Sequence to fold (222 residues):
Amino acid sequence: MNAATKPIRVVLVDDHPMLLWGLSKLIDGERPRLEVAGTAQTLEEAERLVEREKPDIVLLDLDLGGQSGLDAMPAILRNEGTRIIILTGTRDRSLREQSMLRGASGILSKEAAADTLITAITRVHAGEVWLDPETAAQILGRLRQDKRDPEAERIASLTQKERKVIQALVKGEGLPNKVLADRLCMAEHTLRNHLSSIYSKLGVRTRLALYMYAIEHHLGED
Fold:
């Protein structure tokens, strides 16, 4: 058998014998594309098996009867050609994120369909990353949360008219509201309404506080 037709060799690590049996049947049913290189129920068995067989893919459960699959990952990944797919029933976001940070190439729910599992194995073997929808949503949500800037969000909520009011206030420094209103071609009570809205959006309470905020965030510039 040449390299082009060499099967993807998979090691299965889970502490449930029936699940191992079912996964073995599923993967061996994909011969000659895939084959099971061995199964393990404990971390120790998994590490010895991977060292001996040097598989392409390890399907690794995170909960191995009180042992954490995370603890086996460094030893598994010491074999340069082996990639890990976490096959798990946990919905714990931190565990899923830790597994990716420690080098997993994919995460798949135990509830995933059989064809999804086979696709994940082949894609990860090809060098891709595979995330189930739940984990992908969690990671994207975390990235969006990390990138959010509260001040940028407040400033983005300002209308164009409110920005003009702030610019006039900065340029006019201590001018009274009536003069500022005249410069903006609006009634004084309209200016006060705009200022109240600006104060609420930016979290300030006085014109002086608004002036200092605008200088700090360059809101007085055209």
Q: What stands out?
A: The first strand starts at residue 8 and ends at 13.
